[in-house]
Amino acid sequence: MPTPRDYDADPGRFRRGVRLTAAHVRPGADLHARIVRLLLDAGAARVLDIGCGDGALARSAVGSALRVYGIDAATAMTAAAVRRCPVARGDVIALPVADAAADAVVAVNVLDHLDRPELGLREAYRVLRPDGLFIAGTISRVDSPELAPFWQPEPTPFDAEDAQQLVAAAFGAAETEPWDASLITLPDRDAVRDFLQARLVPHHRAELLADALADRGPLPLPLTKRGALILARRAS
């Protein structure tokens, strides 16, 4: 089922996850920094970040030649992102952008929110210039296996396992850049709780699961992060 959208109802959940990742990610493992390098290597200038959240991609692009424009459906996110880049409110399946206006389109942890990801992919294709680059990021159904006795990600319509096939159906071809490594270390019981809450585990259940995991030990807990970037180009 699609990942629920609660970014206006509970923006603190999203921001808690962002802070947790920033505090405990392995040095050099910043996903948005990797995307910036891919965009620069592709010669992109005008980049549309759909589902931009609080503007993490624009923050990573500071000092580069990239001009990042954000789109997000949540008012709470656009209000935060406007400090970092031009931003508009809009939905991934109906982007308020002209045809062929962008050199690149980025969608990180966005298409899993859709019942039909192909609708979002169709819009991304529409707003890309010929030979423009599309980059999607998504996690695997077996992400964070160390937590599997207590919690596992719910399958979505756009997981790493099927994302390449879906993007290829829209663009004609696609390639995958996977990740599968110990990238985050949760230092204590509260970090485990926050990690679970950031992944939509209800607060009370996250507290109980964090207690159970802390009792089992040991902490700190390194987590194996699994997922992929999917890259495609619009036909020239």
From TrEMBL:
| A Pfam match | Methyltransf_11
Which GO annotations describe the biological process of this protein?
A: methylation
**Organism source for this protein?**
Rhodococcus jostii
The alphabetical list of record keywords is:
Methyltransferase, Transferase
One of the entry's Gene Ontology molecular-function terms is:
methyltransferase activity
- Mind telling me which SUPFAM superfamilies this protein's record contains? S-adenosyl-L-methionine-dependent methyltransferases
Alphabetized PANTHER family for the sequence = METHYLTRANSFERASE
Q: Boundaries of each Methyltransferase type domain copy?
A: 48-135
- What protein name applies here? Class I SAM-dependent methyltransferase
The reply on keyword Isomerase is: no
* Source superkingdom: Bacteria
